[in-house]
Specification:
This protein has helices spanning 2-17, 27-34, 213-216, 253-271, 281-288, 290-305, 312-351, 372-380, 384-412, 476-493, 504-526, 537-583, 611-618, 622-656, and strands at 23-24, 58-73, 78-90, 104-105, 110-111, 129-131, 134-139, 147-151, 156-168, 180-189, 197-201, 207-209, 220-229, 232-234, 237-239, 241-250, 449-457, 460-468. By secondary structure, it is of the alpha+beta class. It comes from Pristionchus fissidentatus.
Length: 657
C-alpha cells in the first residue's frame, strides 16, 4: 500500500522540481511596444555621459563586404562596384530587454521588414549616409528588397543593404599601361556633423572581399584594400567620413601581346634593311614603308583605348616610330653616300693624266695616322655607304636595348606608393541609367548541375543554392575567321624559301606584307575580347604564327647576307683566276699539253646518303643551304605545333567532358 502511494505521488514531485516555463513574447508585440510614441525623425541619444544634453554623437560602426568590381573606365575615370554595406549603432529607445523578467522571455533579435518604398515607410531612425564620389547608385529589389534591419535587446541595430554604385576614380595615366591606380569609396553623413554622428571602422575585418574577387578583374589586379578616415570641414560644419582605398595594378600581359611584341618585331624588321645590299632600292624602301603601317597600328590602338592622356604607351610608340623612321633615313643617307662615292670616283678617273698607251697613272697617297681599329675598319669597308650600314647594325640595336632597359627600370619604380589629391565636385550631371550586373562563367566541360552550399558572413550563416551553366563556344566561326587565314599567311611566308636569293624586292615585300597582315588579324580578333590578365589559346596561336612569319623574314636576311659574301668571294676568285691564266698563257707556236687520266684509280665504293642530304651536300653555297634547310624545318615545326595545339586545347577538353 505504501509503495502504491509513492508511485502515485511521483509525477507531482517531478513537476514541483522542474522550473516554471517562461512566456515568450511575440515579435509583433515587441515591435508594437517599442514603436509606440517613437519618433524616427529624432536621432537617438549618444553614450557619452560628458554631454548632458545629447549624450554626444551617435557612433556608427561600418563594415563592407565587397562582392565585385567591374567596368573600370579609363576614359571617364569611373568604375562600378557591388557590395554589402553594413552599419551598426545603438538606439536606447528600441531596447526591449526591459520587457524580460522571471516569467517572460524575449527573442535574441528582431528583424524589421521593409518595403520597396522604404523611404516612405521608414519606421526607425537611420544614419543619412551618402557616398561622396558616387555618380550613379541603386538598391537591389529582386525578389524582395535586399535590406536587413536587425534590432537586438539592448537597442543595438544592424542595418545591411546590397548596393551597386558607379564611382568616380581619379586616375594618373602617366605610366599607362604600366600604371597603378588607387580608387576610393568615401562615405559620410549628408546632414549630421561630427557633433551628431561619428563613423568608425569595425575593428575586425572592416572590409571583406568575396572569394576570387582579386582574380576576377579582367584588366586589373586588386593588390590591396586599405581603410582610412577622411573627415572634412566645410562652410556648414565638420563631417565624419570613412574611406576605402583599393589599389589596382593594370595587367601587363594583354598589352605585351597586343602592343609591345608586335611593335618590337616591326622595329627589328626595319633593321633587316642594314643587311641588304645598297643597290636593293625597292626592297629597302618597302621595309621603310612599315613606318606608316606601324603608325596606323599605334593610332588604332590609341583610338580603341580612348585615352587622350600622354602615358608610357605614347613614349613607346614614339620611340619605335623614331627607330623605324631612322632606319628609313639611314637608307637615304646610304644611297646618297653611294652615289657620292660613284661621282667622286668618276671625277678622279677623268682628272688622271694618260700616257701614250692610253693608260692612266694612279698615285697612292699616305692617309693620315689614325687608330688601329679605324684603319682596319676603313681598309675592310672602303665605301662610305657600306660603313654606314655596318655602324647602323650596331648603333640601332644598342640604342633600342638601352631604351628597353630604361622602360624596365621605370616599370620597377611603379612599386613605389602613389599619392593622389582627390577633388570632388558638388554638382553631378549624370543621367539615371541602370547598372548591369556581370557574372563570371567557368567554361569547363562538366555537366550542368545544381549544388547546395553554405556561405558564412559576419552577421550569421545563410543557406545558398547555386546553378552552374556550362557554355561551350562554337568553333566553326573562329575556324573560318582566324585559324584558316593564319595558316594561309604562314604558308604564304614560306614561298620566300623557293624564290631566288637575288629576288630581293619580291622576298622582302612578301615577308613584310604577311607580317603586317598577321598583326592586323591579331588586333582585330583581340579587340572583341576583354583585356584579361592570363594567356588565352588564341594568344598562343597568334604568337606562334607571328613567330614563324617573323622567322621567315629574318631567314632571308641571313640568306642575303651570305649571298653577298659569296658573290664578293666569287668575284675575287675570278679576278685571281684571270690573272693566273694571263701569266700561264701557252705560246701559240707550242702544242697544248694533254692530261691522261686512264691510269687514275677510281673509287670503288661511295657511301649512300639520303636524297635530301645529298642535295644539301652538293650545294656549296651557304645561302642556298639555308633556303633548302628552311623548306623542311619551318613546315615540320609548324606541323608539330599544330599537333601540340590540337591535343592540348581540344583533346584535353574532350577528355574532361
Amino acid at each position: 500500500m505504501l509503495r502504491l502511494l509513492l508511485i502515485l505521488s511521483l509525477p507531482s514531485l517531478i513537476a514541483a522540481q522542474q522550473p516554471a516555463k517562461k512566456n515568450k513574447l511575440k515579435e509583433q508585440e515587441i515591435i508594437q511596444k517599442v514603436l509606440t510614441n517613437y519618433d524616427w525623425r529624432v536621432r537617438p541619444r549618444g553614450e557619452n555621459s560628458s554631454w548632458p544634453d545629447t549624450g554626444g554623437p551617435v557612433v556608427v560602426t561600418v563594415n563592407v563586404y565587397l562582392r565585385s568590381i567591374s567596368k573600370i573606365d579609363d576614359v571617364n575615370m569611373e568604375y562600378s562596384a557591388q557590395f554589402t554595406f553594413r552599419e551598426e549603432w545603438k538606439d536606447a529607445r528600441l531596447a526591449y530587454n526591459r520587457f524580460a523578467d522571471e516569467n517572460t522571455e524575449v527573442p535574441p533579435f528582431l528583424v524589421l521588414a521593409t518595403s520597396e518604398h522604404s523611404d516612405l515607410s521608414q519606421q526607425i531612425w537611420m544614419p543619412d549616409t551618402f557616398f561622396q564620389n558616387e555618380k550613379e547608385a541603386r538598391r537591389h529589389l529582386i525578389d524582395k528588397p535586399n535590406v536587413l534591419i536587425r534590432i537586438h535587446p539592448d537597442g543595438s541595430i544592424l542595418y545591411s543593404v546590397r548596393l551597386s554604385l558607379v564611382l568616380s576614380c581619379l586616375m594618373s595615366l602617366e605610366y599607362y599601361p604600366l600604371d597603378r591606380q588607387t580608387c576610393l569609396i568615401d562615405l559620410a553623413s549628408y546632414a549630421y556633423t561630427t557633433d551628431d554622428i561619428k563613423y568608425i571602422w569595425k575593428v575586425q575585418n572592416p572590409v571583406q572581399l568575396k572569394e576570387g574577387l582579386k582574380q576576377s578583374l579582367p584588366s586589373f589586379d586588386l593588390q590591396d584594400v586599405k581603410t582610412d578616415y577622411c573627415t572634412s570641414k566645410t562652410n556648414t560644419g565638420e563631417y565624419s567620413c570613412l574611406r576605402t582605398k583599393m589599389i589596382l595594378r593594370r595587367e601587363f600581359s594583354y598589352y605585351l601581346l597586343q602592343l609591345y611584341i608586335p611593335s618590337f618585331m616591326l622595329v627589328i624588321v626595319s633593321w633587316v634593311s642594314f643587311w641588304l645590299d645598297k643597290d636593293s632600292v625597292p626592297a629597302r624602301v618597302t621595309l621603310g614603308q612599315s613606318n606608316t603601317d606601324f603608325f596606323e597600328f599605334g593610332h588604332q590602338l590609341q583610338t580603341a583605348s580612348g585615352l587622350l592622356h600622354k602615358g608610357a604607351i605614347d613614349v613607346w610608340i614614339g620611340v619605335c616610330l623614331a627607330f623605324i623612321f631612322g632606319a628609313l633615313l639611314e637608307f637615304a643617307l646610304v644611297n646618297y653616300a653611294a652615289r657620292k662615292d660613284m661621282t667622286c670616283n668618276q671625277r678622279l678617273m677623268k682628272q688622271l693624266p694618260t700616257d701614250a698607251s692610253g693608260y692612266r697613272q694612279l698615285h697612292a697617297s699616305i692617309p693620315p695616322r689614325s687608330s688601329f681599329c679605324c684603319r682596319i675598319f676603313v681598309r675592310r669597308y672602303k665605301e662610305r655607304s657600306k660603313r654606314i650600314d655596318v655602324v647602323s647594325r650596331l648603333v640601332f640595336p644598342i640604342g633600342y636595348a638601352c631604351f628597353n632597359g630604361i622602360c624596365l627600370s621605370a616599370r620597377c619604380m611603379l612599386s613605389l606608393p602613389f599619392c593622389f589629391s582627390v577633388l570632388y565636385w558638388a554638382v553631378y550631371l549624370v543621367d539615371r541609367k541602370p547598372v548591369s550586373i556581370y557574372q563570371f562563367f567557368n567554361s569547363t566541360h562538366y555537366p550542368s548541375l545544381s549544388t547546395p552550399l553554405t556561405l558564412t558572413f559576419l552577421v550569421g550563416e545563410y543557406s545558398c543554392a547555386r546553378v552552374k551553366i556550362n557554355l561551350k563556344r562554337e568553333y566553326s566561326y573562329y575556324l573560318i575567321q582566324l585559324y584558316i587565314p593564319c595558316i594561309m599567311l604562314v604558308v604564304v611566308s614560306w614561298v620566300s624559301f623557293w624564290l631566288d636569293k637575288d629576288a630581293v624586292p619580291a622576298r622582302v615585300s612578301l615577308g613584310v606584307t604577311t607580317l603586317l597582315t598577321m598583326t592586323t588579324q591579331a588586333s582585330g580578333i583581340n579587340s572583341k575580347l576583354p583585356p584579361v590578365s592570363y594567356i588565352k589559346a588564341v594568344d598562343v596561336w597568334i604568337g606562334v604564327c607571328l613567330a614563324f612569319i617573323f622567322g621567315a623574314l629574318l631567314e632571308y636576311a641571313v640568306v642575303n647576307y651570305y649571298g653577298r659574301k659569296e658573290f664578293l668571294r666569287n668575284q675575287e676568285k675570278s679576278k685571281k683566276m684571270s690573272a693566273r691564266m694571263e701569266d700561264c698563257a701557252c705560246p701559240s707556236d707550242r702544242p697544248a699539253l694533254r692530261l691522261d687520266l686512264s691510269s687514275y684509280r677510281k673509287k670503288t665504293w661511295t657511301p649512300r646518303m639520303p636524297a635530301w642530304f645529298a642535295i644539301i651536300g652538293k650545294t656549296k653555297e651557304i645561302s642556298r643551304k639555308v633556303d633548302l634547310i628552311s623548306r623542311v624545318t619551318f613546315p615540320s615545326l609548324f606541323i608539330g605545333f599544330l599537333i601540340f595545339y590540337y591535343f592540348f586545347y581540344f583533346i584535353e577538353n574532350t577528355v574532361e567532358e
